[in-house]
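Morning. Coffee machine broken again, so started the prediction first thing and wrote up yesterday's gels while waiting. Chain of 140 residues, entered below exactly as on the submission form.
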Amino acid sequence: MERDQKAELLRGVPLFGDCGKRDLGRIGRLVDEVTMPAGRVLMEQGRSGTEFFVIVEGRVRVERDGRHLATLGPGDFLGEIALIDHRPRNATATCETECRLLVLGHREFHTLLADEPRIAVAVMRSLAQRLRSLEPAPAG
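Came back before lunch.
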């Protein structure tokens, strides 16, 4: 996959929403492109998370406590919060079909943030915006 295609997929991830084209390109150089077979578990509820995934091709089923939550497809992403907190996953994700994915690991992401403070600030801004969106609106 070309670098511009990776950057475009990463642009749709809220965590990277405040990153510019150059920074998305830098992140894109760190992601690996992998193919996973149907039935492969990408993440398991309750287990520590170390990777973030962007779906390039295929479908991924997401379940919590055995209940179907969503089916994700091309352009969708999962596991981005694990890049920040490295805590147990809150859902299980399984490839329904063969999937082509972009994968970014926790270690690579943190090295990037240490090396590129501009990207760290952009990620913090994106997180702050997401937190604000969860706050109730002030009474008018």
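Residues 117-134 form the longest helix (18 residues). Going to sketch it on the whiteboard this afternoon.
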